[in-house]
Amino acid sequence: MxxxxxxxxxxxxxxxxxxxxNLEKKDSPLFLNEVGARIWSLLDGQYTVSTISTIIAAExxxxxxxxxxxxxxxxxxxxxxxxxxx
Amino acid sequence: xxxxxxxxxYQNPDLRLLAAILSGNQHPRQIPxxxxxxxxxxxxxxxxxxxxxxxxxxxxxxxxxxELWEPAFTxxxxxxxxxxxxxxxxxxxxRAFNEAGIAAVWLKGIALAVTVFPQPALRPxxxxxxxxxxxxxxxxxxxxxxxxxxxxxxxxxxEAALQDTKQDYHYRLxxxxxYLEIHYRLINEGEIPHTxxxxxxxxxxxxxxxxxxxILKPDAFLLHLCAHVVIHHGEETATxxxxxDIHRVLTNTTIDWAFLIEWAAKLxxxxxxEYALTITEALFQTPIPEGTFExxxxxxxxxxxxxxxxxxxxxxxxxxxxxxxxxxMPLVDQIxxxxxxxxxxxxxxxxxxxxKPGHPVWVYYPRRWLSQAMVVGAWLxxxxxxxxxxxx
Lengths: 86, 392
Hints:
The complex is a heterodimer of chains A (86) and B (392). Chain A has helices spanning 34-42, 49-59, 64-80, and strands at 2-5, 9-14, 17-22, 30-32, 44-48, 84-85. With 86 residues, chain A is α+β, with helices and mostly antiparallel strands.
């Protein structure tokens, strides 16, 4: 599966976090930590979930299966707030 | 070199230490652990909490992991969200002004946040400030109202009184929790009678490289910030963040100093700029080119009203501001405003003192009279000090 950022989502840096806001759902901002922000940056329509997980596992020195599960869960949260075009 | 001793209000050790940390002149690891609580309190009071987190996290990340810092991170997140909502409103208003052919320039927070701060979320903002040509002010007001903005209620009775005087300078509107100030005069200069059209000059100094956010070019931006902190409301309400703004403009933009000095003199602001830069330099060790202060003094025009600015410094400045407002009013309006000061409307008291529903309002009146008496006392003491100084 390839997931892509919804360009209507507004983002703002907050020190080392990234704030995501869907203007149509003002009450549901999402605050991403460094890992979440990195995953978000990879959602440019080029990478599959599997590739993103591999990149994250390598960059943050983490166990790939655990990362893959976390990425899937994270993408589900993004989708729920309308942050993805799939 | 600067000619003034740093006024007492800026001598607070925590305030000076905070300024030194923010400007990189004091490493956070050298601060004793038990001092952070008071430093964070001062940073909060002066709207500098997000910048303090940013600087300390970069210099000594191990320091910001304790619970003590959690409110600071919350503040940063809230600022980031608030910036998004303010930016949306700003773009909507700017677009509507553009379509109506109104030349608008965005001032202060929204302009500073995106130009001289590492991240917009690091510059807390209470409202949006936009300057429009005087002749277009009514059209701008109608446009803002058509976008859902309404006059801020309950009105601050001082600001309401301003509407009927020559010192009238802006409309204050709100939509939800977004406040929009439409300025049609750049600075409230009280009674200073200047024939020079300052607003026209500032409109000739607009940077339109971002069509969504026309802002002042750095030299004009700096002049405005200096005038705003020193005279607009009087220095009594000034915060460290306002001098930090000046510090950031000085260290993150290129200033044409000859041009700045020339226009500081022409605008009758040479003393204002000299004073604001003096405080900024003393607090943040901001590099000011050699000879700047001497040139500002040398270029000062004979009719620049320094006395008016002196009255707005230190304690009692708020009262001085109100007195200058009253001098421009007919006697009957002066009496009405005085009565409102002593017995403010109930809606004002509820907002000013954050009185919870069900609590009696009358008990807050003695508290107000006491605090107002202290302000008058401070003003009288300062006046007496000037007279003693003038007689020497």
